[in-house]
Design brief:
159 residues; mainly alpha; 0% strand; 5 helices; elongated; Ferritin
Length: 159
């Protein structure tokens, strides 16, 4: 831990950093899962899904940055390599051999839902530790994830 004049007690900061580090790994994994879908989608809705999946990846990237920067603000080290994300991510493995748009929609919506659940838990955990700023950050992330879960799931709904 780096010294900081942040007034949250060091032990609480350590606990919050651990929560942030785990969600950082999940979010980095989500970003690359969205890119996997973006690169490999095929079918009649190709262009719409290709562009949507890229927006999901962009939103995840923005969230990765927010989470990583919060870790550093609290005196921690943001560990954001692919190897660390692979070791720590709690998201289910993304299926690599799919190509149909509907299959990617199903897989990516599952990843978004799983990450959303983890983030909502992090909202509560960080609030319980007295770090309302981190709780608010996770609330912001949650809103973006829920928005894109809605956008992606819409392709499974309707007719």
């Amino acid at each position: 831990m780096y010294k900081t004049k942040n007034d949250l007690p060091e032990e609480r900061r350590k606990q919050v950093i651990e929560i942030l580090a785990n969600r950082l790994a999940d979010c980095a994994d989500l970003q690359l899962q969205a890119k996997q879908a973006h690169w490999n989608v095929k079918g009649p809705s190709f262009i719409a899904l290709h562009e949507l999946f890229d927006k999901v990846a962009d939103t995840a990237e923005e969230s990765v940055d927010l989470i990583a920067e919060r870790i550093v603000q609290l005196g921690g080290i943001a560990e954001g390599t692919v190897r660390v994300a692979a070791q720590r991510s709690a998201l289910p493995e993304y299926p690599l051999k799919i190509s149909a748009g509907k299959d990617h929609v199903d897989a990516l919506s599952s990843a978004l839902a799983a990450f959303g659940k983890l983030v909502r838990s992090a909202i509560d955990q960080s609030a319980e530790l007295g770090d309302v700023d981190t709780s608010d950050l996770f609330t912001e992330v949650s809103r973006g994830i829920d928005k894109y879960l809605w956008f992606v799931e819409a392709h499974l709904q309707g007719n």
